[in-house]
Design goal:
Elements (H helix, E strand, L loop, with lengths): L2 H43 L1 H8 L1 H4 L10 H9 L7 E6 L8 E6 L14 E5 L6 E6 L3 H10 L8 E5 L1 H5 L8 E5 H24 L19 H28 L5 H12 L9 E5 L18 E3 L12 H10 L7 E3 L4 E3 L2 E3 L2 E5 L10 E6 L5 E6 L5 H13 L6 H28 L13 H6 L2 H17 L1 H20 L3 H6 L1 H7 L7
Antiparallel strand pairs: 1-2, 2-3, 3-4, 5-6, 7-8, 9-12, 10-11, 12-13, 13-14
Helix pairs in contact: 1-5, 1-7, 1-12, 7-8, 8-11, 8-12, 14-15
Protein name: PepSY domain-containing protein
Organism: Mycolicibacterium pallens
Keywords: Membrane, Transmembrane, Transmembrane helix
Length: 517
């Protein structure tokens, strides 16, 4: 072997060792969140059949010869909540065996930004008009899965962070800061580190000359021990990596901080088509609850105003329901009552707002605004009016929810969740089988030899990638600075090379730096 070949192998081994150390520590940090996201994601993915199974007494009814008027059902629901509770939405049955759902917000409910308001869901039998029961939206298995998956959103403590939208367009985003829930910010931070975990994992798997014997797309089942778990871990990670990267990026658009800043960027770079119609001070996002009703791209859309007709009365829910069916809205649509506002003695009348059921495909993204007095269509907002980036984001979210391509995306989402759980389990088994007896087996700092053999080119590439990620995801950038500061403090306390060599036997008993293989 020539001197050049030997030097190249040492350099490759040094980079490989340091990337492996990064992968190990990031995996240790991200594994609990990955497990939580995978488990809660599976529950949300199959939330509708699970909900029907666990809450059959609320959701499923026996069909009858005729139905009770929808407004009578709404009146029944009002009788079973507090007098001060606000009617939020009415969801007519989406099938012959489905109940009617009427949503209320409690009189003492905290709104955004203090919290993301929960709603009371009241269920009524559409055939008999009987009250079936009620629940809080976030209760039960599916409700808790939604809470965990978003790390409780803006519920609980929150902090004010600078708004990029305010810098880009102060008139559209007058608030200079965004109130962000601590839990949701932690989710955003961990999600970015998961991207680092996936990238470092792909690098470790990637074929290279110094690991010629390492299998790439096969598993050494007969060999057993760590090699077997390493092969399963690597193969699973590579298979689901692309899906997971898409899921992480699409999920980031829902985060309270990065997601709101991304919304401002999309609205500025590729603005949606404006609808020429009078509007109220309210926005469609005001009707949102936990991101589960309103299409992402439609959140900033205004609620349009109704032109009052002299002597005309507000239409009933039954009237609006008939119009929605005639307009072929997707069954499961929600009807939001109009909200009027008065300013300087002048009243602006809101409109009935009908939104297609959630989750939805991009092709199903539709909001119908109806004059509350005449039922005339004020405007019909669809994804076709959204800007390119907003439409792309909506597509990513529909894929994230397993809805865009039906069972195909649901299967891919299921594979991704199960792949995450398998990767975490095999990573744990790899560490357990490799660790020294009676020791933790955690990797210690890179040795002087490893640091000396690491090529400057590799360090430059890693630095550039880290800077780009830090700019794109500020929370990650700040956390990376904290990690580098901690590393610097540890390095400053590390004994000189000569002294370190005299205590090697002691340090190796406390920490190890094994080969990635």
């Amino acid at each position: 072997m020539t001197t050049t070949e030997s030097s190249t192998r040492r350099a490759d081994a040094a980079v490989l060792r340091r990337i492996w150390r990064l992968h190990f520590w990031v995996g240790l940090f991200a594994a609990p969140v990955l497990v939580m996201l995978a488990c809660s994601g599976l529950v949300i993915l199959y939330g509708q059949p699970l909900d029907a199974l666990l809450n059959r007494h609320l959701l499923v009814v026996e069909p009858g010869p005729q139905t009770v008027p929808l407004d009578t059902q709404v009146a029944t629901a009002k009788q079973h909540v507090a007098a001060g509770d606000t009617l939020e939405a009415v969801t007519p049955p989406d099938g012959a065996h489905a109940s009617t759902r009427v949503d209320f917000s409690p009189v003492d409910a905290k709104g955004y930004p203090q919290a993301e308001a929960d709603v009371i869901q009241v269920f009524v039998d559409p055939y008999t008009g009987a009250y079936l029961g009620q629940r809080e939206q976030l209760s039960g298995l599916v409700g808790w899965a939604n809470q965990l998956h978003r790390m409780f959103g803006n519920d609980g403590p929150h902090m004010q962070l600078p708004s990029l939208g305010h810098v880009i367009n102060p008139s559209a985003y007058p608030q200079s800061t965004i109130p962000v829930g601590i839990g949701n910010l932690w989710m955003e931070l961990t999600a970015t580190w998961i991207l680092v975990l996936l990238a470092s994992g792909i690098y470790l798997w990637w074929p290279r000359a110094i690991e010629a014997a390492k299998p790439l797309l096969t598993v050494r089942w007969r060999q057993g021990g760590r090699p077997r778990w390493r092969d399963v871990h690597a193969l699973t990670g590579v298979v689901v990596a692309v899906i997971l990267i898409c899921y992480i990026l699409s999920g980031m658009t829902w985060t309270r901080y990065w997601g709101e800043n991304w919304r401002a960027v999309t609205a500025t770079v590729t603005p949606s088509a404006e609808i020429d119609a009078p509007s109220t001070p309210a926005k469609l996002g005001d009707l949102d609850r936990l991101g589960r009703r309103i299409a992402w791209a439609a959140t900033d859309d205004p609620i349009y105003a109704s032109d009052p007709s002299p002597g005309a009365a507000r239409l009933s829910y039954a009237d609006i329901d008939r119009i929605a069916k005639d307009e072929h809205m997707v069954p499961g649509y929600a009807i939001f009552p109009p909200a009027d506002s008065t300013r300087d003695g002048a009243t602006t009348y809101g409109s009935y707002t009908v939104v297609n059921r959630w989750p939805q495909r991009v092709s199903e993204q539709r909001t119908l605004y109806l004059n509350q007095f005449t039922g005339a269509t004020i405007t019909n907002a669809t994804a076709a009016q959204d800007g390119a980036l907003s439409k792309l984001t909506s597509f990513g979210i529909a894929m994230h929810m397993g809805n865009q391509m039906g069972w195909l995306t649901r299967i891919s989402a299921t594979v991704a969740c199960l792949g995450v759980l398998l990767s975490v389990a095999t990573g744990l088994l790899m560490w357990w089988t490799r660790r020294p007896s009676g020791r933790s087996g955690l990797p210690g700092p890179a040795s002087e030899t490893t640091r000396a053999n690491t090529p400057k080119k590799a360090m430059i590439v890693v630095t550039v990638v880290a800077v780009i990620l830090g700019i794109l995801f500020p929370a990650f950038g700040i956390s990376l600075l904290v990690v580098l500061l901690a590393e610097a403090i540890v390095a400053a306390r590390r004994p000189p090379p000569g002294q370190a060599s005299r205590v090697t036997s002691t340090t190796t008993s406390r920490s190890v730096e094994p080969s990635p293989e």
